[in-house]
Amino acid sequence: MEVSPVRPVVVVVGAGAAGTLVALHVCDAAVRAGQPLDLVLVDPAPEAGRGTAYGSRDPRHLLNTPVGAMSCRPDDPGHFRRWLCRHDEQVGDGDFVSRYRFGSYLGDTLGRAVIGARETVRVRRLRAEAVRCDWPDPAGRAALLLADGRLVHADRVVLATGPAEGGGWIPQELREAPGFLARPWQTGALDAVAAARDDVLLVGAGLTAVDLAMTLARPGRTVHAVSRTGLLPARHADVPLPPVPCPPGLTAERSPGRLRAAVARHLAGQRRESGDWRPAMDGLRPVVSRVWQGLGAAEKAELMAHGMTRWNTLRHRMPPATARTVQRLEATGGLRRHTGRISSVSPLETGSFATVLADGARLTTGWVVDCTGPGSETDAAPGSLWRSLLDSGLAVPGPLGLGVATEEGRLLDEQGTASRALHTLGAPRRGELWETTAIPEIRVQAAALADALVVSYR
Ligand SMILES: Cc1cc2nc3c(=O)[nH]c(=O)nc-3n(C[C@H](O)[C@H](O)[C@H](O)COP(=O)(O)OP(=O)(O)OC[C@H]3O[C@@H](n4cnc5c(N)ncnc54)[C@H](O)[C@@H]3O)c2cc1C
After folding, report:
1. Fewest CB within 10 A of the end CB: N or C in the chain?
2. Using H for helix, E for strand and C for coil, what is the string for 143-164?
3. Is residue 263 in contact with ligand 1, taking CB distance under 6 Å?
């Protein structure tokens, strides 16, 4: 691709929420700084802004974060609400709208940012998967190879590739069975199971499982959801109270046991005071990364082993409307929860699946859907972008194998040096930040990264 030597080139790999947020903030930052640049957005997906989370057209698939926390612009919390109101949806900051709407908002906001920056930023969109990244090439730049054979040279690369593919637990025989869905959010993945009537097993009982239960439930069908704790995500309050600041001592706590106890006390205290523990939980969210970074490797490992499941069910909550639907489904037998590990899932000759739980319970279902969530970049498949970065030592696994090692979003190489050219945000920063996978965190990272990228050329 032709590149002008005087215009730095920023390539953003991934046009999901994170890549879209970076791209729109780069446009804004370049205009503010009067810095001309070329911006290349690489993703095989047809639309920017959808990614895994915001492509579902089922209107029951709501954001699990209220409107007031989903603005693209961290310094303008009302931006998303105003966009919705301009598009005929009269909503307040505490409402939950469909995820599809949010994807449309991201795409539209990017489009406007691109138009606003057209004198300064030249934008290219390449619909392809990036499969390899080398740095530095003989000219000191990054070279990105796309699956279609094109080579893109860049001064800076932002790896906005989202959560790594999960499903490491899935045996090959199961993966290849026609009724097994490993990637339920892929476009069209649910069509066949939604059209059928036989029972479904959801492996996992988090937010994905809850959404799929709503989509797949129908008269005469039981949707089973199995997880180790059997717990569903907590629900948001009908009338949310504002977050309560974290108690001062808690952020300095370094012992996992005392940390767990301090969090439990804080939540219980708030429930006694206001009748609701959620404001205490929401007040912890901005300090989670600071607490995480203050812990040693052993303490992080201890927390991961004990306490994160409970944390996740309280932290990742379902909207009230979703909770009501799920309650109704459970009451009518449309959804049945099972607690415990799965001992085996075997495809049968009939096309169904026989599942045995650790307590001996047996289920026969027509479909099995993996809802266990993301895996790790370190398991990236041969021939993939992250595999190339890990194999060449430009990236190394993050603490406890969570994401990749980063320092303020720059990739750390095998010498522990922070890359000048390779950046990431969102899920790949889990090891550095722990709390990094949702929009309220990603938008702050995107805005800061865009400023840093633009300033680095001046
Ligand atoms: C079902 C679901 C619901 C959610 N709901 C919410 C919510 O309500 N609120 C909230 O704050 N968060 C929510 N989240 C969290 C969500 O992960 C983030 O909000 C956000 O969508 C993450 O965006 P991302 O761009 O990092 O990742 P993704 O959405 O996964 O996007 C990554 C993009 O990168 C592309 N890509 C990957 N590798 C390559 C490559 N090698 N070359 C080119 N392109 C590549 C992919 O095609 C994809 O388009 C939800 C997550 C899920 C799964």
Report:
1. C
2. EEEECCCCEEEECEEEECCCCC
3. no
